């Protein structure tokens, strides 16, 4: 226990040295992401520079991601939150730090989930975030899953990957926090079997499930006619949404 506590103090120290925010982070004990994951998150974003990030569950992670995007100068975070109360607190923190332009915070109460799920008990309600909040997203490079809370229903976080699988970029990464818990372990095992990805369990304080995708982009199958050298291929057009870090910001 002492060794783990020291590791969190150490991670928090290095995290605060990396952050440019002036205020304080929300409390990092209990339900929020632990300092070791937040440090890994900030480093990873600044190294890989994902263009579109989606997170489920706002809070300290929202500030850390927005800070990294601000330092990099590109990218966009779509944060999905089911609690209007915590959503307002997160939005206020972003505005206080001047980071609002990097985050699209979307709030919607949990609603019935009708897709595939690990909870097969018909007498138990299954809920998740409103899928309509994800309709306009495409080519998502990174997904962080830290919600909804486990108490909302059994295997509460399972729908995240089924809901976003067709919206991921060819080289997307997905992180599931609390992966050392029983239900999250089962979710990780199920995702690893069901989706074409590589899975790794990273030994963070509460466990971190990391899924990486390396799929080939779709290829236009139309046959190019001889001599038609000026025709643009589908790979020449970037259809992703402009981010706050682009030249016309």
Q: Could you write a compact summary of the structure shown?
A:
This protein has helices at residues 2-18, 35-48, 60-72, 84-96, 160-164, 182-194; strands spanning 52-56, 76-81, 103-107, 111-112, 127-128, 140-145, 168-177, 198-202, 208-212. The chain is an alpha/beta fold. The strands form 2 sheets. Strands 3-2-1-6-7-9-8 form a 7-stranded mixed β-sheet, sandwiched between helices. A two-stranded antiparallel sheet has the order 4-5.
Query: How many strands, what sense, and barrel or not for the largest sheet?
Result: 7 strands, mixed
Rounded to the nearest angstrom, the radius of gyration is: 19 Å
Strand arrangement in the largest pleated sheet? 3-2-1-6-7-9-8
Compressed to H and E, one letter per element, the order equals HHEHEHEEEEHEHEE
Low-confidence stretches: 221-249
Shape: globular
Task: Kindly name the structural category.
Answer: alpha/beta
Number of strands: 9
Task: State which percent range the strand residues make up.
Answer: 15-25%
Separate helix tally: 6
**N→C terminal distance:** 47 Å
Average pLDDT rating: 87
Instruction: Please estimate the helix content.
Output: 25-40%
